[in-house]
Amino acid sequence: MLIDRSPGLFIALANVVVFGVVGVEAWMWTASSVLAVAFTLLLIVTVAGGICAVTLRLLDGAAPAAPQTSRGEPQSLAARRRERPAAVVTGNLPRPVAHG
User: Fold this and answer.
1) According to the UniProt record, where is the region Disordered (predicted)?
2) Which pLDDT tens digits describe the chain residue by residue (100 residues)?
3) Model's pTM, two decimal places?
4) Could you count the other beta carbons within 10 Å of the beta carbon of residue 79?
5) CB distance 27 to 35 below 8 Å
6) Residue 21 and residue 15: Cα distance in Å, rounded?
7) Are 28 and 36 within 8 A, CB to CB?
8) Structural domain boundaries of the chain?
9) CA dist., res. 59 & res. 68, Å (int)
């Protein structure tokens, strides 16, 4: 993907898209046309959908799924259930002092 090959170009492209949409919004205010408003709304929805699609594609390959145990629960949960936290010893702690 572009973000892996050239992060700087990815950021530059993102800025062009964002400021391009802002420029179209500014044009919409000066056009005073219902058609301009409809076009701008369609552009915003399309760009937002594209951003969501790219983000989901980036996140799809980022974290592999946890290996499954025989019972079907993720390995990390099974390992956590076997481990028990260490006991906390509170017998030798000094008594709190009340200031007041």
Assistant:
1) 64-100
2) 777 788 888 889 989 999 999 999 999 999 989 999 999 999 999 999 998 988 888 887 655 555 555 565 555 666 666 666 666 666 676 777 777 6
3) 0.54
4) 11
5) no
6) 10
7) yes
8) 2-59
9) 21
